[in-house]
Amino acid sequence: MAVCKRSSSSSSLSPIHPRNGFCNANSTFYSKRNPLPLPANSSLDVTTFISSQAHHGTTAFIDAATGHRISFSDLWRSVDNVADCLHRDMGIRRGDVVLILSPNSISIPLVCLSVMSLGAVVTTANPLNTASEISRQVADCNPKLAFATPDQAPKLAASGAISVVLTEEDEERVGSTLGVRVVGSLSEMMKKKPSERRVRNRVNRDETAMLLYSSGTTGRSKGVIISHGNLIAHVARYIAEPLEPNQTFLCTVPLFHTFGLLNYALATVALGSTVVILRKFDLHGMMAAVEKYRATTLVLVPPILVAMINGSDLIKARYDLTSLKTVRSGGAPLSKEVTESFLEKYPTVDIFQGYALTESNSSGASTDSVEESKRHGAVGLLSSGVEARVVDPDTGRIMGVNQTGELWLKGPAITKGYYRNEEATKETINSEGWLKTGDLCCIDDDGFVFILDRLKELIKYKAYQVPPAELEGLLLTHPEIVDAAVIPFPDREVGQLPMAYIVRKTGSLLSEKSLMEFVAKQVAPYKRVRKVAFVSSIPKNPSGKILRKDLIKLATSNSTV
Questions:
Q1: Please, are residues 267 and 238 in contact by the beta-carbon 8 Å criterion?
Q2: Could you tell me which residue ranges the AMP-binding enzyme C-terminal domain spans (predicted)?
């Protein structure tokens, strides 16, 4: 069998179709974008790689609420100071895990770059999560130190003797008043001068740089292992396909998540771009920030795009958006209808979107030009360095152009697996390194990827991942519930709502309101059940698996069981 690879010699013939990137010899799609400029040095940490990139930028990050700015020179000076304090005063060493628990803040990229420069490992937690949810993550990855805001730090009180560095000053709430052992503040660490020249450990690109937790289809979230090499490949993608110069990004997406963290807290540093960070999403606060900081690009998820459509008249009357040229959307695919509605309301703003997973480290597909964005309904062309296959989920047969199947991805940015979870790794990544995305897709004659449906059962509420199995397990602990199933219910505003089908015990008068309150007390806000239907039984196949598609069809057709 012929092996399809892009040739380094222009005189060599390539079996890859120039229009769609498909190779008949191995039924693989190859990226049509520029090759990845990966460094030859295998002993390279991602912080060093990012800091070595030349650019002409001046301001790295701006806090949208306070206007506080940090320049690139101050950022790198602070990274060195914090890294030195972590090593000398906190005893952080290569391989140690450091947790970040914070709303969006300009301190997040600073801490990440400092930790990873030591060969230590960054893990982030969703600040919306409850203390018990965070405790499970802490128990799984065993961080040696945590960076947290004063309002978030108490959630770590039940997580053992973990030491905490406060990322914000709060003189009234320190030490024992927070219920945790506070060992310093980030502002103090940034000011400390290194006492002596520290020799950096040589970090291999295969070593772990991050553990980002992704909700699985069957149960609780899993730690995705992200190596320095994965992150270097991710950053190199932006070097291969550079964004327009002199952009000012307004980031509304959470920085604990791969979409915000990898793209707008790390890659933009290598490019010299300015990122304005919105601490918490508020539609009018976002629009005011666009006007105040003359943002050129908005980074958001589809529900925010919908909110902009619905409030367009008031927004355009109140705010000067003449600086805004582009919207970059991710977290969930944009429908053709939403895209067309937005362009009708904001005709001078282009929409670019991307498709990726935590497991693919923001590599997947994207639209990166006005011409590409006109292919409405497509998530774009394959990212630099990415290979793809379309596989029939029932037969395993590899499909071709314009055929539907599960999207598989492969490349240097793809994770090697899940932390301490060999079973989940084998289910998701095969022996050849192909990542099974769980998404049904087709790739057309021009190489554009279309996401058609999800094989995975994750619910996307405002682009947050909600695993149905986790909610079902919680519901079944209720003394008046015999059986339960949770499905995604489509909603224009938020994408999908968690909806529960419930079988009550005989004689139970359990109400919709009390059930939703039962769940709300135990999970993060984005995981709350928003709709309930009481039924006599849950449809299942012979092996006992819930027939969610039947329930989804039932829910959306307004039928009753």
A1: yes
A2: 470-545
Strand partners, 442: 450
Radius of gyration (Cα) for the chain, nearest Å? 24
Is the pLDDT confidence value at 560 over 50? no
Q: Encoding tokens for residue 507? A: 């004689």
Please state which of the ranges 15-29, 171-185, 287-301 shows the lowest mean pLDDT: 171-185
For residue 260, what are its two tokens? 């915000």
Q: Provide the pLDDT for residue 561.
A: 40
Structure tokens at 129: 């999560």
Cα–Cα distances (Å) from 495 to 184, 284, 326, 362, in that order, read 41, 21, 22, 20
Q: Round to whole Å and give the CA distance between 556 and 496.
A: 12
Q: Please tell me the predicted confidence (pLDDT) of residue 4.
A: 57
Query: What does the block give as tokens for 347?
Result: 């005709």
State the number of CA atoms in the 13 A half-sphere of 389 facing the CB. 21
With b for 16 or more beta-carbon neighbours within 10 A and e for fewer, the 94-104 pattern comes to: eebbbbbbbbb
One-letter identity of residue 28: T
pLDDT (tens digit per residue) in 395-406: 999 999 999 999
Mean pLDDT for 476-502 is 92
Q: Does residue 539 contact residue 545 with C-beta atoms inside 8 Å?
A: no
State how far the Cα of 35 lies from the Cα of 52, in Å rounded to an integer. 20
Contacts of 366 by beta carbon, 8 Å cutoff, 6+ apart? 352, 353, 354, 355, 379, 380, 381, 383
Cα distance between residue 363 and residue 409, in whole Å: 9
Residue range 13-38, pLDDT digits in tens: 558 999 999 999 999 999 999 999 99
3-state SS, residue 15: coil
Each domain of the chain, given as residue ranges in start order, spans: 46-443, 459-556
463 contacts 495 by C-beta, under 8 angstroms: yes
Domain 459-556 class in CATH: alpha beta
Pairing mode, strands 531-534 and 274-277? unpaired
- Asked whether 48 and 35 are in contact (CB, 8 A), the reply is no
CATH topology of domain 46-443: Rossmann fold (3.40.50)
Distance CA 538, CA 547 (A): 8
Beta strand segments in 237-300, E: 248-251, 274-277, 297-300
* Mean pLDDT computed over every residue of the chain: 90
Q: Is 551 exposed, middle or buried (0-12, 13-18, 19+ CB in 10 A)?
A: buried
Task: Give me the percent of the chain exceeding a pLDDT of 90.
Answer: 73
352 touches 379 (CB < 8 A): no
DSSP state at residue 156 = G
Q: What is the mean pLDDT of residues 471-476?
A: 89
Q: Indicate the DSSP class of residue 261.
A: H
* pLDDT score of 250: 97
**pLDDT for residue 509:** 94
